[in-house]
Amino acid sequence: MFQPAELISNYQKMNPGEARLSAIREAIWQADLAKDSPYMLYFRCEYANASREADTFLLQLYLIFPEILKIFEEQPDIRMPDCSFMNATDTVQELFSEMVACADFFYQIPVADMERYLEKYKDFCLKYGYALFSYYMASARLYRQIDDKERTMQNLKDFKALCRTENRKNANCLDFIAELACWYDDLDTLLKVTRMLEKKFPESSQLIYEYGRLLYCYAVRRQDLKAAAPYYENLQRLCRKFRTGNPYFADTMVYLALTDQKKAWSFFQKEAPSQITTTVPLDKMEFSTGAEIMMRSLMKSGRKTIRISLPGSQPWQREDDCYETKVLAEYFGKEAREISARFDARNGNNHSMEEYELFLSAAENCI
Fold first, then answer.
1. Beta strands in 59-135 (DSSP E)
2. How distant is the alpha carbon of residue 36 from its chain centre?
3. Alpha-carbon distance 317 to 323, whole Å?
4. CB–CB of 104/142 below 8 Å?
5. Whole-model pTM above 0.85?
6. Would you say 29 and 63 are in contact if contact means Cβ atoms under 8 Å apart?
7. Which of the residues 32, 220, 234, 304 has an alpha carbon 20 to 30 A from that of 345?
8. Which residues lie closer than 8 Å to 115 by C-beta, 6 or more apart?
């Protein structure tokens, strides 16, 4: 007998991770056997949300979402079970937004698939009355990656127009404008938006990204360590305040390796245990680039071995936690180049490899 309440109770007791996902997969299977459409949709949405809880499983969102969309499109009037806090349309829209927003993190998702889902997402939003903020943002990110600046800027223009129409002037909107300014090295706009955020939203966690982008623009692109210094300090301050990991690992590593190797090694020891386990390719590329710079910096200073305890089951890991810096430098460099090459193959250009080389060039004096 199909007992959804018991299935829900079972997986809700579990911590985020593979065991919880496995329990939800069992619930999906039982709902399918019972042909209970509301729970067929509900449990798949639960699986998608559980995938979002940990970056390790984020790709699972893309694998399950086509099933969610298929159920909803076949039964647009479907009602979620009483245990759901949201109706079916809002639930699907939220997951759809997350999917298109993060698609560019994965080289496994072809550009054609991303474009197809963006158009389906646009149609969905227009049909059910949702604003197109996420559509314009995700489209601009996609076209920036594949080197179509004209369509990137058109989506940015449409995004700004929608912000004016909807009277939307929050930190997230400003942050997106700053994101594209950073990628196109428009330092004046990035500085202007950062000052606006500091004035209007001084307590916003979005400032983490503005300070990180300015650290990148000065330390990596311009090798101006003096100008980069205050943004490094502000970035670290906000990461401590919001108790979050540093999302600008490689940028920070360049800055610290050039200014204070002792701090660079302390930063690596603090951040590496949480960042090394990511399975999101974009994040893994960032970590591996920074890790290579750290190891090569230690090598240049004459340090041949290090001792550090890291989670996971990497091919180079040893039981005694003692490693040769040369071995790690070669491993992380190879990983960063391989991931960069896969993104470039997906995007049809060589931008990711150029970024990797830019980071190493910026740290040239210490590696």
1. none
2. 34
3. 8
4. yes
5. yes
6. no
7. 220
8. 142
